[in-house]
Amino acid sequence: MPGRGHASASGAFSLSGVSRGAGPGPVGKSVEMKRNYWRGKEKHGWNNRKHSYRPRQYRRPNHNNCTERPEQEEPQIAVNAGPSSSGDPSSSSLTQSSVPELPGFYYDSEKNRYFRLLPGHNNYNPLTKESIQYKAMECKRLRLLEEEEKQKKKTARAGLNSSMLLQKRQLGLLSSTSYCRLVHELKVNCMQRRKIEIRSPDSSVAGTNNFKIIVADVACERIFTVNDVEHGGCKYGIINLSGLGKESLTVEIKLCLMGIAETPGCASLLPASLFSSTNPGDRPGMLCSFKISTAWSCAWCLNPQADNCFSTGLTRRVLVTNVVTGHRQTFGTSSDVLAQQFATQTPVLYNGCRSGEIFSIDVRQRNRKGQSWKAIRLFHDSAVTSIRLLEAEHYLMAADMAGKIKLWDLRIAKCVKQYKGHHNEYAVLPLHVNEEEGLLTAVGQDCYTRIWSLQDAHLLRTIPSPHPSSKDAIPSVVFSSRLGGSRGVPGLLMAVKQDLYHFSYN
Fold first, then answer.
1. pLDDT score for 162
2. DSSP 3-state assignment of 502?
3. How far is Cα of residue 471 from the mean position of the Cα atoms in its chain?
4. CA torsion angle 115 121 126 128 (round to 10)
5. For the CA atoms of the chain, what is the radius of gyration?
6. In whole angstroms, what is the distance from residue 191 CA to residue 492 CA?
């Protein structure tokens, strides 16, 4: 306003229309009064600015120095220090979980302080809990990949090496079974990742669709693949693994079938023997297809007493179908059946439910009202997503959505071992048991592949995914000591997205 003071950008004040060299007298007194007035205003405005609100960072309580003042910095993305030298990313999550969560803040473990999650502009906020967790996981994955490239030789157990094993074997301190098992443990920790080139007579087939499932045949000469198709449905194929033994890793897709998912939960039987055809024009169709709604799982029976039957786990019931006669037998359950497997020595079907219950059914008996048909009953605290019978069928391996993997002794209905480190929250993820090598393999929802010792449940290795972690990039794996046949190369096959990788025993 004219004749009054105005504030400059630096916070100082000046007067207009008054001479700075005014002496004593009425004019000088008025000038002095105005100066005192504006000095009071300046002081008052400075105090207001000191008490104005500013976003702050909050430290965790420091008992050594309680007088320390929090620093004023710009919010940053939290990056965890990552797992310890064991290579398991779950170790850092334990440290993170011990820190209390504050609404509207996130904790940076490296700087040992909390940072405010700022409100977004135009409904966009780059600092969300999901984005922070994703960046932290991605930093862990990249660090583990870098460590794996540097460390050519690693040991899962302290003091375990090939020369010590050989010396104990020669002295008779180790049996042949224990020696082979420990050698496999050494080899597993030295596996190096190599990308496989996929070839196909049809150029539109190779490397165009994401892998969903890969399963090896009994001889491990070929793998059965299921790939997603962009326009809906799926594509089935057989990949020959004979090229794994060569220096240049190349595999060939022998045959592909297209299947469109017309009905959700459709169970289809494919003639695997016809996949040996080398003529692309001889494309076999499906052997039979059963349109079953609300299907969660399925299993084929290899026992001679019920060799033409397969089972489907549905919502609150189990459906056993004879593919020759078409006869169906229904068993009602109290929960959805998410996992199934038939025993080979007896026609018994094992089922894992969403309620956490595991029960068995003898398919030779008829389901009658008022009659109990559940032979064995086991219980998990969370939904059971995968079950695997061991070769002697005295033990059953089961995994659930709480990330727990348990080994059950079916003779006493008791859990005898737990395999720790697996990560799962809601996905249906398979277990891979290799008794000959004494190994258990599982891929977690965090996209890490973990390998345990069947003998003592020791976590041998944690393998990060070559691709960034996401819901549609969970790897599918196959492990065998003879990939490609009896003279094949031992190792692990991993399918992620459109790529296929081989971790070989080098």
1. 79
2. strand
3. 8
4. 60
5. 33
6. 8
Give buried/exposed letters for 62-89 (b at 16+ CB in 10 A, else e): eeeeeeeeeeeeebeebbbebbeeebbb
Structure tokens at 261: 């998912």
Cβ(246)–Cβ(230) below 8 Å: no
d(CA 440, CA 433): 5
CA–CA separation, 50 and 210 (whole Å): 58
Please calculate the CA angle 248-253-257 and round it to the nearest 5 degrees: 165
* Cβ–Cβ < 8 Å for 465, 473: yes
How far is Cα of residue 306 from the mean position of the Cα atoms in its chain?
A: 36
Residue 222's pLDDT is what?
87
As a three-state string, the secondary structure of 315-345 is CCEEEEEECCCCCEEEEECCCCEEEEEECCC
Identity of residue 106: Y
Walk across the sheet containing 449-453 and list its strands. 431-434, 439-443, 449-453, 459-463
Q: Using CA atoms of 222, 227, 233, 236 in order, give the dihedral in degrees to the nearest 10.
A: -10
Beta-bridge mates of residue 451: 441, 461
Exposed e or buried b per residue across 280-310, where buried means at least 16 C-beta atoms within 10 angstroms of its C-beta: eeeeeeeeeebebeebbbbbebebeebeebb
Give Cα 398 distance to the centre of its chain. Answer: 17
Q: Which secondary structure element, helix H or strand E, spans residue 359, and what is its range?
A: strand 357-362
What is the spatial distance between Cα 428 and Cα 422, in angstroms, rounded to a whole number?
13
Could you give the CA distance from residue 301 to residue 316 in angstroms, rounded to a whole number? 21
State both tokens at 44.
Answer: 């008052």
- pTM of the model as a whole: 0.72
| H/E stretch holding 185 | helix 176-189
- Contacts of 222 by beta carbon, 8 Å cutoff, 6+ apart: 216, 238, 239, 240, 241, 254, 275
- What is the chain's percent helix, strand, coil content, to nearest 5? 20, 35, 50
Copy the structure tokens of residue 50: 């000191």
> Helix axis angle, 176-189 relative to 162-170, nearest 10°?
170
Give the pair of three-digit tokens for residue 75: 């919010």
Contact 505, 489 (CB under 8 A): yes
The per-residue pLDDT for 488 is 83
Give the pLDDT of residue 76: 40
Q: What are phi and psi of 39, to 5 degrees?
A: -65, -40
Owner of token pair 């009064």:
33
Q: Can you list the residues of the chain whose pLDDT is less than 70? A: 1-98, 118-129, 151-156, 159, 201-208, 231-232, 246-248, 254-267, 271-293, 366-372
Alpha-carbon distance 336 to 353, whole Å? Answer: 5
